[in-house]
User: Fold these one by one.
Assistant:
Number 1:
Amino acid sequence: MIAEILSTGDEVRSGALVDSNSAYIAEALEEVGLEVTRHSTVGDDLDAIASIIKEIGARADVSVVTGGLGPTTDDITAEAAALAAGTELCEDDTALLSIENFFKKRQRLMNPLNRKQALLPKGSKCLENPAGTAPGFAVRIENCLFFFLPGVPSEMKKMLSEKVIPEITALWGGHREYSLVRNISTFGLTEAAVNENLLSVIDDYPDIRLGLRATFPEIHVKLYGRGKDEKKVSGLLESATGRVLEKLGNRVISTIGEPMELVVSRLLKNKKATLSVAESCTGGLVSNMLTNIPGSSDYFLFSGVTYSNESKIKLLGVQQSVIEKYGAVHEETAKEMAVCVRRITGATYGLSTSGIAGPSGGTDEKPVGTICIGLATPVEVKGFRFVFQFGDRLMNKKVFAVTALDLLRRELL
Amino acid sequence: MIAEILSTGDEVRSGALVDSNSAYIAEALEEVGLEVTRHSTVGDDLDAIASIIKEIGARADVSVVTGGLGPTTDDITAEAAALAAGTELCEDDTALLSIENFFKKRQRLMNPLNRKQALLPKGSKCLENPAGTAPGFAVRIENCLFFFLPGVPSEMKKMLSEKVIPEITALWGGHREYSLVRNISTFGLTEAAVNENLLSVIDDYPDIRLGLRATFPEIHVKLYGRGKDEKKVSGLLESATGRVLEKLGNRVISTIGEPMELVVSRLLKNKKATLSVAESCTGGLVSNMLTNIPGSSDYFLFSGVTYSNESKIKLLGVQQSVIEKYGAVHEETAKEMAVCVRRITGATYGLSTSGIAGPSGGTDEKPVGTICIGLATPVEVKGFRFVFQFGDRLMNKKVFAVTALDLLRRELL
């Protein structure tokens, strides 16, 4: 079955916004065995949308369309779909109810503008939106079954997995091919180095496609297998995953694509250990990443974001003499910070960061990209220093934070 | 002049790679006054590429195509362009020389495979690549002038600005149009409410297109103007911006699209004021956002991420009796946290958050989405409570943090 993807909206058309929805949808469709042949993007223009819908209708079996289902005047995708289908818009009861419920649940008054979102092309089936006001809809136009979804990524993703994929799988029936994917998250090697390490795996598994995806600063190794025999594909992927683990060792964070903070959280929970953090250059990022995981209050006690030397001394209890002797950015200072934050909070582990995220503040000896990390455990305290070459403040903060968490991960293993 | 963008390659088609090239090119073309009407993506398939090139040739005046110019067997864009143009590939002297020079300069031997990259469709003009081996080319197919560029972003960007844009501007001659855009960031109203507030602006400025962009939790109002007279377009946008300000008042954060943390940072700097933060439910996000701005050490003193009651009492000095009387999530507790963090750090302002980000921990009285915020200034302390209905931990953290910063922003104004 041939699939096409269409994204609509002036923001993506004009380049103000990068269209990441289409890649996400393409991957999801390919995973259930569809062959995505084309993506297109057009702006908020009635004729442009209607005309491309007709084109796709003549070429594809399935199409997923995003954008233009909001309540405002430039949201015209439903109207364009009706135009392409040669029908008209009608108020859909399910859609209206789902919008009303959205507001009711939140004890808010429904804006009259939102009523427009219940107008769907005649003959279409409403796809309820569990996360927003814009219901989607499915409708057949020419030879193609179209799924219209909102452009807000969080809403689109939910509806894609909960509504669209099950419908497509049902449609597919017994003819489906299985497209399976394994996602192995790694940290600590560049994309080129990961690739080089895995060359023999590519050779030994000709039926498996290997893709590398940088979700900075992690590199995710994706293994794709496809075939009619699900068990066979799955077994092949399992075996290839084993080879990747062999080749990359403890650079592998997770064999199911989990990010660093989730892996560290679970390790802490399993050990019934607690953690406190003293952050300088990461500015709260370590703590923000950890508290993004639900249930983090079980192990996360405290983070002190101590930018100034004064706050390091006064609030963490760092000895002034250590900072004076070594400077704020130094393994010894980082060790002292980790020990202090562990002590004042009674945590099992103390983790600290002190470095230079840039753009200014670098010296020859300690250039921008330098990070010192301290890790205090129940039995010892360790200090580390790394220099990264990304030259970008936000990338530096990110790689500093993930490096600190990675050191804790290795300690917990 | 109508422009279309085409990206080729299995990586973008299958979603393994997000196509950020197309957005970049669209913005660059719109900036010089072209009207980008459509982007398309197809895989490394000869017929698919040739057929879409023909389609574009019939619709557009100009087209920029990326990808498939490399030395390997799946790089087939030049062949597809020749097929679409009804011509054949010939070795191009300029192209061959530029490839040879690339290797000579780097004192490397040219791989025989690279010679293939000098094969261009007959009648096309070589566009030299200053940064890689793949030369681009320009060729007219049907009514459209096509520019073929490599897919590697760094090479594409260089060639776009150095080769393509000058050619288009020359072609455009005195007829060029100016496309200007204003980006007004707002916070505090839903997208529907912003739209409703601005209906009269849309009516009064028929030559200006208004677009809303949700960069959660901010809503950005974008005003687009286009015309031959740059001054006139600019004046019209200025006047419309004034009307938006009138309508939205202090919901407007910035008239140049700046995010909340940048606006707050500047206000603090201008006032030579300092800030300390006590974060509970935002878990370091407020502090992470502020420290993303270079130079934040000028005003940002400290953030204590105090998840537990114990750390609030022991490390911030919050009175146990306040927590016992009101509970951790309460305006009075938030006020006490703000006062304490201001006092222990000597900051001009103390800002605090305490709430329930979810997914669990909500009660009937304090449901998930409840946030209490404290703001201690040199003269007083204020407490606030809001309940948001997003029902998602990360969205709640985000809206909590931005709400806290917005209260500080209003205080600083």
Note: The mean pLDDT of chain A is 93.
Number 2:
Amino acid sequence: MGNTFGQLFRVTTFGESHGGGIGVIIDGCPPKIDISEAEIQQELDRRRPGQSKITTQRKEEDRCEILSGVFEGKTLGTPIAILVRNKDARPEDYAEIARKFRPSHADFTYEAKYGIRNWQGGGRASARETIGRVAASAVAKKILSIVCPESEIVAYVAQIHEIAAKINRSVVTMEDVEKNTVRCPDGAAAKKMASLIEQVRVDGDSIGGVIECVARGIPPGLGEPVFDKLEADLAKAMLSIPATKGFEIGSGFTATRMRGSEHNDPFEMRAGKIRTATNNSGGVQGGISNGEEIYFRIGFKPIATIAYEQKTVTASREQTKLAARGRHDPCVLPRAVPIVEAMAAIVLCDHALRQKAIGSPGWSE
Amino acid sequence: MGNTFGQLFRVTTFGESHGGGIGVIIDGCPPKIDISEAEIQQELDRRRPGQSKITTQRKEEDRCEILSGVFEGKTLGTPIAILVRNKDARPEDYAEIARKFRPSHADFTYEAKYGIRNWQGGGRASARETIGRVAASAVAKKILSIVCPESEIVAYVAQIHEIAAKINRSVVTMEDVEKNTVRCPDGAAAKKMASLIEQVRVDGDSIGGVIECVARGIPPGLGEPVFDKLEADLAKAMLSIPATKGFEIGSGFTATRMRGSEHNDPFEMRAGKIRTATNNSGGVQGGISNGEEIYFRIGFKPIATIAYEQKTVTASREQTKLAARGRHDPCVLPRAVPIVEAMAAIVLCDHALRQKAIGSPGWSE
Amino acid sequence: MGNTFGQLFRVTTFGESHGGGIGVIIDGCPPKIDISEAEIQQELDRRRPGQSKITTQRKEEDRCEILSGVFEGKTLGTPIAILVRNKDARPEDYAEIARKFRPSHADFTYEAKYGIRNWQGGGRASARETIGRVAASAVAKKILSIVCPESEIVAYVAQIHEIAAKINRSVVTMEDVEKNTVRCPDGAAAKKMASLIEQVRVDGDSIGGVIECVARGIPPGLGEPVFDKLEADLAKAMLSIPATKGFEIGSGFTATRMRGSEHNDPFEMRAGKIRTATNNSGGVQGGISNGEEIYFRIGFKPIATIAYEQKTVTASREQTKLAARGRHDPCVLPRAVPIVEAMAAIVLCDHALRQKAIGSPGWSE
Amino acid sequence: MGNTFGQLFRVTTFGESHGGGIGVIIDGCPPKIDISEAEIQQELDRRRPGQSKITTQRKEEDRCEILSGVFEGKTLGTPIAILVRNKDARPEDYAEIARKFRPSHADFTYEAKYGIRNWQGGGRASARETIGRVAASAVAKKILSIVCPESEIVAYVAQIHEIAAKINRSVVTMEDVEKNTVRCPDGAAAKKMASLIEQVRVDGDSIGGVIECVARGIPPGLGEPVFDKLEADLAKAMLSIPATKGFEIGSGFTATRMRGSEHNDPFEMRAGKIRTATNNSGGVQGGISNGEEIYFRIGFKPIATIAYEQKTVTASREQTKLAARGRHDPCVLPRAVPIVEAMAAIVLCDHALRQKAIGSPGWSE
């Protein structure tokens, strides 16, 4: 259980890092939407490892195949199944991990929960699982481009370790983000980040950071109080991404040190629309979008698998040491950027369809 | 939509702050569990306003009535419906709000989404909605006490504005928390907080802060990868509470400035069990509990309704000013403590039942 | 679990026949729909017992109260909670049933499943539970009247024991149905049915029959292949009504004795629309409505609780005999007519909203 | 939407009759259950066409591949994805159908709903979709064999057109069923049925019938009132199978002509257990299994695609005639037997896991 996300745009992922393949079924996609393997592949290529020396050297082609739900380039309204074959398995890389629990990885908890695990790579806990999410997001973005034609989602690295970037979230574009391998649109900060990541790789260590995501052009009215508030579903979506430890929207934890008179976003009329003068709310009030920019930040821990020697125990409960081999990212954030975008698109698409069902004419139009 | 939470322990809340009443239906509660209105009332009394001068002066009795699902003091396995009548309505308090959107409140977004709203109080967006959640949590805690007999959930105020408390989360008890009206177990900090809140009330302003919650004694194995990871469901639960802006588990955003070699929690054998030497993970690895303390922090913004005069617009789109009247909390955190606990109990109970269904014998036993 | 029905128009019922009350929460109702307690009461009055000598003499007022979700006569888009208090409890009527399992009733299976049951009346298994469904259907019908303005649902008694009625399902109206207490629009048959039911009452026995339901004016396109086919959801809805044993749509079991060349409904153009010349399909093809009349039949068994002495066992597993006392319908069908209509309306409303979400442009328009 | 079935054992199918492939994702399968491609293939082979001259001559190999969720022959607790490639496409067979709506087929309704359809074969409406269900049932049966070790599900053809078989449902085995190509364990009737089917094929026509299914050894307590009654979920499952028009459980429509005193199943003590003397209930009372045989009947219409020339309209709304070419079953029932069994197994497995979650102590044990 737990492998399906969304109410109307329902994404079910499957697959371990090793085995037949990884993929997704999308149920609830409206019919007659143009979609091609090439468009999905483009999204997948952004999350693929092996793109530069700062990410893992594992070489995967990750070619996607649409198995169903699309006919002559258009969606049928039936489930869209997308498959990416696993390749490049080197089980010998994982021989040691088969017996020793990696500290802070999912090895131990999968054993505790299931009494069994695919020890080849991370199995189901591998970040490779997110291929299905990213593939689904290509479809979600297409739907959003129809239902919310003004919408645009951009994610980027905002901080690596102590290096914080300066980014104007209202104007930053995906092109800005893709300019460098760190996916940080602040060029100066990006350079420092790249050096630090390379240093950490040499050290056999890993490093965390913050990804920020902004969704512009989302109309007022998305979000379903009380439990499926837009920020609640975004929080769940983001915390379901491997290696995440925190989520904040709008002013976030900074709000905890503010007074209402500073924090409140005064309403004003602008270009004939009700707008807010500031945006501490992060585009969401009472769980519903208010038409302003939706922005949020996700905290990533340094990933668990490191070459650095650590204390741990074996599956047979003996104390031991482990220095992981294999190809691992020293810093997962550059590759996580498209995953954050993907989950944001899936959440917004689902809520857009939910809102369509109850047919709000939209008070503010 | 969006008023149901949980997969097996399903909580559906209903009710506006004004109107017939507020309540909840719990579906999926196992049979033959002892529960009484008195036990539910005890939980409700903890979240009730009017308990001290630092919280809202609105006087509500909030007497709960079990309408169904319980017979001769025991659950029947059928839906448990609990109702709390609304009383003490003073619509005149809300006359101004009927026309003017409160900045950063849900007034505007509800109008934008639904084209209609109950302007008396916050309607559905009122914190009064959480009565249903707290009532349900009394049942969830009972189930947890059977399924996870060692379990214990304690929440407390960890920070108000700039005042941070010092609390040993491994030993803090609910009694410690209830010692003062701020619900901060650090007595010295609590005093400062109380003074600050009183000052803010006098100013007609409001103030935010942080609540921390710890769940001890949760066995390994709870949480359903990949989307229903334990931290993902906790994040959603917490961000569904009014006035929340952020969530972090374990090391949280601090992890973003750490290296893997510092952050990883080494495994060790302790008292015959696999344990971690540190707990940056916050008791969850790969979305599944690892048997350590689960702890997380929730950031609350200062609440929106303040007496302070602010710029806003009217429902007919004219620029205006608003200084809210009525009885409002200057600081929601003391009353939010039992709500955080409630949502934590509901998430853990749901996952405990989900795990029961697939019957993991538990590798670590 | 199992007390919620529907995907977008979500109906959750609660309540036992004895205890605080019976009711329903409707989640997913669009905003700004006119609804009043009077309209809901009108539906409830149709299913109320005590209307004539052929139904149970139990006198219930069954006054409904809207607890939430409606403001100034209009839906808010928030959950609509409706409560009907239980009255007129006479536990002494049930003293014997507390110890002896009624043959073919739910007494034994509830004990087997839950290890506990509310033995006062049928508890949760009482037909009184359907109050919640009927209340919800008043809202569903309102939504249908907006989304499918041509739609009309009529149910009626088509057969009691061996007495079959002759009814033209294409023209029968609710007024025709309500003309007599049997709710059979064939007046001659109705008379015979009424006599038979009265005879069966005198015998202390009970009797079954068939209810037919027709939904006219449903546009093409409702139904979600493959599992949520319109006929599949109708079948589930109808078999969830107490005392039902069978469901057939269109030609039903008669189709099993036909050839394709007889059974197929040829398409033809009529008034500019694609129509079928015959309607063995019952308005549904491939799980999706085709614009023709949707009609189906539900088989009801004679109800279990009879005054007639029967062999049974006690809760302590001793052989015994039981002749039930109390007020029981000899024939449930007249009162089940509005329940069948209610469930049909709920299914169609849910599917209409689901179709709205994916935005059927409507090929045939 | 609508492509997922089950609450805890969740089956999501995908695929059209033509295109990349057909398959299923199973979410919620407990870990450490032995399963192999060979076992799944065995179930698939039973539903495969081309086995005899009485079924369609379309030659498909339908080799299944497990893509995920199984490691070294055991389930991981993660989603099990199973894929069967489509082969043997002959689009030219479908050229005519691309323009002309087959009477009583899903062609028109898919167009009406989605505005698009895969006209190659039945697309998503093809019976080929049931491959995913049958594959999933191999897993469901494995789980049932652990959770309900006494359980056994047998389905068989009980009637073809006017030919009714005589079968003792309490002793019939799958071996009896598989003895002949008609899958009717009454040898004499089977012979007549085979002749009739062959005759109908020669006529270019099709023919309907009834499949009966019995589940023995199901313990008391499965089924979730009120909406997810066992018979309600079975009814939905069966009516979701292509070409079905009716469902009845136990006495079914025969009950409509009975009195309570005849129909009620008296309780008696037998071998220390509470049993019923008769079984008109069909093993289900109040929506919950009572430990007796669960048996039900499903009415199948003659399939729509026939060589016989029929009146219809084109997609461009012109009156025309159609005599379908290609390879089509004159009678779908023999091949539908394993599909009925599959859906029964999926429903019972799901309810067994649901019951496990609420921990029935089992009153009757």
Note: Residues 4-358 of chain A form a domain with the Chorismate synthase, AroC fold fold (CATH 3.60.150.10).
